[in-house]
Design goal:
Blueprint (H helix, E strand, L loop, with lengths): L2 E4 L8 H10 L4 E3 L7 H9 L13 E4 L2 E4 L1 H12 L6 H23 L14 H28 L15 H16 L1 H7 L4 H11 L2 H7 L24
Helix pairs in contact: 1-3, 1-6, 3-4, 4-5, 4-6, 6-7, 6-8
Length: 241
């Protein structure tokens, strides 16, 4: 039975971290809200259900049979062993999960650069605050997070090709997506700092060349970045850092 992924139609968003894992291994899955006749209504039916035992608070969530798993890191912690994208060692699985949770924090901060006051307000309603938040994000938070992940790669006893162990895990795929998103949202700032993160950029490039990932990136299944998602490019926010 195919996995069912539920996320907002038209944007990569947080759903993309799950898609990359499924695409890497060629897993059968349905991107539910993009299906004719189902759409966002099918997702909202579950979220607003008055009878579903385990209702998710927000997308993304994954259905595997009758089981509903919410939250990106939680979904990937569930899928990782099933897809061969997690270490066999139980302790290292929790290390990978911890790294994924750090990715979650980073993604939330990236989102808040363009919505620093209120998620219900448009970007245009908070532009001065967004400019200040983005300047701080570029100056302090990008180097804080990317510097951390660079050290994790550099200090991996199995070598700098992967964050944990000597084989690809789902958090490697997630770091690829983070770099992709930052390059889209803050191209000038990222170009200025890219020499500081050689291991991260090598990981990004290696993931992009993996056959299934390369095929996915070139397909219509890979939605383009846009100004409705988490990573948004507003030139006025892209200081050089």
């Amino acid at each position: 039975m195919a996995y069912e992924l539920y996320y907002w139609d038209g944007i990569q968003g947080r759903g993309e971290f799950v898609r990359l894992a499924l695409e890497e291994v060629g897993a059968a899955y349905i991107d539910v809200t993009r299906q004719p006749g189902r759409g966002t209504g099918a997702m909202m039916d579950i979220m607003e259900s008055e009878s579903e035992t385990h209702i998710p608070f927000a997308p993304p969530f994954l259905k595997d049979g009758d089981l509903i798993i919410p939250h990106v890191a939680n979904i990937l912690f569930y899928l990782g062993p099933k897809l061969g994208l997690a270490p066999e060692d139980d302790g290292l699985r929790h290390v990978v999960n911890g790294l994924q949770l750090t990715v979650t924090d980073f993604v939330a901060e990236a989102h808040d650069t363009h919505h620093p006051i209120d998620m219900s307000l448009y970007y245009e309603d908070q532009k001065p605050e967004a400019k200040a938040r983005s300047a701080a994000f570029i100056r302090d938070r990008i180097p804080k997070f990317l510097g951390y992940f660079e050290r994790v790669l550099r200090q991996n006893p199995k070598g700098p090709n992967h964050l944990v162990g000597d084989a690809l895990t789902y958090v490697d795929l997630s770091l690829f997506q983070v770099i992709e998103g930052l390059n889209y949202a803050f191209p000038k700032a990222m170009t200025k700092r890219k020499a500081e993160y050689p291991c991260l950029l090598a990981l990004h490039d290696a993931v992009a060349k993996r056959p299934n990932i390369a095929s996915y990136l070139a397909s219509a299944r890979r939605l383009a970045f846009n100004e409705e998602g988490i990573f948004r490019h507003y030139p006025e926010l892209d200081g050089a850092g």
